Every structure is written in C-alpha cells, then in structure tokens.
Amino acid sequence: MQKGRSKKYRIIQALRVLTQTIFFILFFYLLLETRFPGEDYIGRVEIFFHFDPLLAVATIIASRAVFLSFIFSAITIIITFVLGRVVCGWVCPLGSIHQFFSFVFKKSKLLRAKKRPDGPTTWKYYILIFILISALFTLDLVGIFDPLSLIYRSFGVSLLPALSHSFTAFLGLLYQINLPAFGDSLFQFFEILDLNSTFTQGFFIGLIFIGLVLLNLARERLWCRYLCPLGALLGLISRWNVVKLRIDPQKCTECGLCNIHCQTEAHPFPNEEWKSSECDYCYTCSTICPTSAIGFPVKSAPEKITRIDLSRRKLLFTSILGVVAVPFFRLSPSSRRASPKLIRPPGALPEEKFLQKCVRCGECMKVCPTNALQPALSEAGPEGIWTPILVPKIGYCEYYCSLCSQVCPTGAIKELTVEEKTQVTIGTAWVNKNTCIPYNIGTPCIVCEEHCPTSPKAIKLVKTDVKLPDGTIKTPVAPVIEIEICIGCGICETKCPVVDEPAIYVTSVGESRSEKNRFLLDILKPEEQERGKSI
C-alpha cells in the first residue's frame, strides 16, 4: 500500500516536470517566433499574456477599459479556484526556471535544504496591494513585477541578444580555425532566428534577471515564495480549491522532512497549519515522505483554512505607499513638455493612456525587424521605465511593417494594418546644418533623400550656397524637410553617413497621437502668426 502510493506521487511529480517542460518550450517557441515572418501578419505570439489574471486586473483598473483578449485569464482563475495554485507549479515558465536552478543548486550542494524559521511570504501580498492601489490612481507598474512580463523582457532584451553576440564570437572562431562548412550551417540556422542584438539597457535588465535566479542560492524558489505578485493573487483565489493535503496520523512519524523540502513554505506538517494559498502542488512532500503518510484527496466540502497573516500596520503602510508613489513616479519634465527623444511606436495610444496599458513585456522590441524599438530609461520619466521608444540611431521604423502593433498584449499599441500605419506620424525629422555634409563642406550628399520612403518624399533637395574657408563658394544640393509629409520613421537618421551625431535627426514633435506635442506655430493665435510672418 505504501509502495503504491509513493509510486503514484512519483508519477504525478514526473508528470509535473513534463508539463513544465512543455509549457516552457511553448513559451520559448512563441518568443523565437516573435520576429519578422516575411509577411504582414504574424499571428498570436503574445497569447501567453492573455491568460495572466494579474495583468488583466491591473491593466483594467489603471486604464478604466476592458481589453477583450484578457477573457482567457478567466480560465486561469477557474483552474486556480478549483485545483489550487497548479499554474505556479505546473505552467509558469519563470517558476520553472527558478525550480530548475533550485534543483541544480541542491544537486551541486550550493543549496542545502534544512529546517529554517518561516520567511516573509507575506511580502508578495504587500507588493500585490501596492500594484493594485497604484493602479486605482492610473499608475500601472504591474509590468515591472509580473512574472510573464519579467521573463519575456529579460529574454527578449538581454538573454537572447547575449546569445546572439556569443554566437557571432563562436562563428568567428570557427572560421579562424578553418571550419567554414560548420560555420556556414550555424550561420544559416541563426539567420532564421533573426535575433536583435542591440539594446541600450540589455545589460542592466539581464543583471536583474540573473540576480533573481541567484537568489535561489539562499532559498529554493525565493522569487515564488516571497516576491511574485501573481503568485499572491492566485494564492488568494486558491483558498477554496477542492484538492486538500491530508496527513495520516497513523503513518506519520513527525520527521519534518515535508517542511524541510517544501518549495514554497506551505508548511505541510502539522496538517492544520498547512497553507493552501502557498502550496503550488509540486507533490515533493508526498514523494519524499518515508511512510507515505501525505496524500492530496479531492474534497469539495469547505473547511477551515489557515488565514494569510497580514499585519494591519503593514497593510495600511503599503496602501498609503501605493497612493503616495503616484505623484513621485510622475515627476518628469516630459509631463510639461514632450521629450524630443520620446518617440513611440506607430499606433501607440496618447501618452497617458499608453502608460496605463503598457506592461513593459518587450514583445514590440523583440519583433521590430530593424532593432529600432528600445526600452526607455528617463525619456518618459520613472513611470515610463522600460516602455518602448524608437531610437533612430540604432534602427528605423520600417515603412511597410506594423508588427509591433500586432504583438502588443494589452492594446497599448493599437493594432494597425500596413496601410493605416503608413498614415501615422510618430515624429519629425530635422537637419543640423552645422554638421550636414552639403551645408558644412559643400560636398553633395543625397543619402537621406534616397532612403526617404514617403510618396511624395518628405526630404527635398535644393541648391544652397556654401562659403568655404578659402573664400570659394560651392552650390551643392542639400536636404530640406517638408514637415507636412514627414512621418518621423527615422530611416534618414539611421542611414546618415555622419558617424557620431547624425546630421539629420528625428524628434517626437508633430506626432499624430498627441494634440499637445505640436509645432509652435500650431498653438499661436492667428494675430501672433501674422506677426511672426512679418518679422
């Protein structure tokens, strides 16, 4: 009897590992498929996000709007309500990574399982409360902490680019040691993956992710135990599940192994202290029990559940902190006058609404075929950290591409067809005559005009007189911007041959999504405009 039960839970545990592997492969496959597919439509590569109830709740509260795709998060809620936090233990790709590294650290003796006093498992509930209270005041910070946003951002902006650089170095080594055939095969494989390799904050974002993984050296699945707000939300929902832990008092020897090896501090022993809100149903306790005393029978009848011990004082402090944080996160010059570098992707909602919906997942940055979209640092203030901005020095907005609007999981970037996208203005180009080659040294240069994709072209070439230091005058053709036509795609800045600071650059002024970020003459009174013309 004991043998059969032990074998039963070993099989269930093996099934859990298999399920985790399948979902992680699915996550990684969708991540790799978030790239230019060779056609206008990419498919629903962002579907994972729509099953996340934390993203759904926080985004709906902050934006005061319902995004229909989040209906799938109801499936996660129902499963958790009936079966407990199985999503954390069986599905979540970030949880799988933490469990894998915890296993590796234990096998390598870097992490030793031993009985310790209970840790601060309530932290994640305070983080959840902070996020939801801030969302009530339209400050959406959920993307910083949400496990799906965190893992997508870390892989897309840091880990995969690091892999791309490592591959480039390895490929160079293969050619140096005279293995061109092998090198060509590898090159073709990585060419298909189409990995963007340049991100301004890739190192910093990667460092955060690696730091979270290394926390498992201190406690097994430390992120899941103490910090994950999605785990906290699912823990609150799971308190009424039908799968309950039961310890047979006739078999239990009170050895304490179940508590020592519990991955989430659910405290299996004694039975009355078991915390169903912390248990992720990994079945480690029932597998390692030497007498097979632990089981998980299905019991639909309600029972007394150990309550989550939240300090009223800390609860009040966290709530106040969530309110007080709102104005501090909005201390930014861009709230008074738009930052010239704050160039959002085409289809982005007006800035206020955009920040209420963007969850900083990095999907748009991963899919951008020119690597133009980058995580913001200070351009949008603290509230806009890691949201996407266009950096023309790195790449440009491809004229016939609307992929970023298709992969946005929350509607922060409105989905556009290619035809609609070409009519959207995201900024305006300007010529710096001090560094522009024709204006400065009189040598003809038409690179920006050649690459301008609009029809008619927004960059015109006109003759100009340039006086050289020796007194001679040249009359080359030089670029002039027709601001009514320019859409701010940035290809002119990307392709400009001036190496350090491109002689033509793009700012956010004139963007379609904003009624305020306009040219100065657009906001002057008619009499002031006439006065300006006469000067």
Provide an overview of this structure.
The chain has 535 residues and is mainly alpha-helical. Among the domains are: 2-241, no CATH class; 425-535, Alpha-Beta Plaits (2-Layer Sandwich). It is 45% helix and 6% strand. It contains 24 helices and 10 strands. The chain has helices at residues 2-33, 53-63, 73-83, 86-90, 93-107, 123-136, 142-145, 147-176, 180-193, 202-214, 222-227, 229-237, 257-261, 284-288, 312-329, 351-357, 363-367, 403-407, 418-421, 437-441, 447-451, 491-495, 520-523, 526-534; strands at residues 246-247, 294-295, 373-375, 388-390, 428-431, 459-463, 466-467, 473-474, 477-481, 504-507. The strands form 5 sheets. Strands 1-2 form a two-stranded antiparallel sheet. A hairpin with a 5-residue loop joins strand 7 and strand 8. Helix 6 (123-136) crosses helix 15 (312-329) and helix 8 runs antiparallel to helix 9 (180-193). The longest helix is centred in the first third of the chain and has 32 residues, at 2-33. The chain is elongated. It starts with a helix and ends with a helix.
Radius of gyration: 28 Å
Strand content: 5-15%
Distance between the termini: 98 Å
Number of helices: 24
Number of strands: 10
SSE order and pairing:
Layout: H1 2-33, H2 53-63, H3 73-83, H4 86-90, H5 93-107, H6 123-136, H7 142-145, H8 147-176, H9 180-193, H10 202-214, H11 222-227, H12 229-237, E1 246-247, H13 257-261, H14 284-288, E2 294-295, H15 312-329, H16 351-357, H17 363-367, E3 373-375, E4 388-390, H18 403-407, H19 418-421, E5 428-431, H20 437-441, H21 447-451, E6 459-463, E7 466-467, E8 473-474, E9 477-481, H22 491-495, E10 504-507, H23 520-523, H24 526-534
Antiparallel strand pairs: 1-2, 3-4, 5-10, 6-9, 7-8
Helix pairs in contact: 2-6, 6-12, 6-15, 8-9, 8-10
